[in-house]
Amino acid sequence: MTTNGNAAGDGTRARFVWPSNCLQTLLAIEHPIIQAPMGGATSPELTAAVSNEGGFGMVAGISCSPSRVSELIRRTKQLTKKPFGVNLVFKDDVDSQLDATLEEGVAAVSFFWGDPVNQIKRVHAAGSKAMLTVSSVEEAKKAADIGVDVIVAQGVEAGGHVPGSVSTMVLIPAITSELSGIPVIAAGGLSNGASIVAALALGASGVWMGTRFLGASEASIHSVYRRHLIAADETSTVYSQLFNKGWECPHRTLRNSTTEAWERAGRPGAGSRPGETDAVATRPDGTRIERYTSATPNVALDGEIEALSMWAGQGVYSVRETEPASRIFQRLVAESQARLRDLTLG
Ligand SMILES: Cc1cc2nc3c(=O)[nH]c(=O)nc-3n(C[C@H](O)[C@H](O)[C@H](O)COP(=O)(O)O)c2cc1C
Question: Could you give the domains of the chain?
Answer without folding.
Answer: 21-218+324-345 (3.20.20.70), 223-316 (no CATH)
